[in-house]
Write a structure and sequence with these properties.
alpha+beta; 4 strands; 33% helix; two-stranded antiparallel ribbon
């Protein structure tokens, strides 16, 4: 099992070839942009506005 990090979904534990294919598809569809919350330059899907770190913080009750 390998571990990968992605700004869209966070940390992934890759278990099989389908997971690897989905990870690479997500990465190829992502573009560099500035997170609307923290301002960091991250690689996100075009329809996403905030990184996974900020999304997790917001879900946990943190307000920017």
């Amino acid at each position: 099992m390998d571990t990968y990090y992605d700004d869209n979904f966070g940390t992934w534990d890759i278990r099989d070839d389908d997971d690897i294919a989905f990870y690479h598809k997500t990465q190829s569809a992502s573009v560099w942009k500035e997170c609307q919350e923290c301002g960091e330059r991250v690689k996100l899907r075009p329809d996403y506005g905030i990184c996974n770190t900020c999304a997790d913080a917001i879900e946990g009750g943190y307000a920017y």
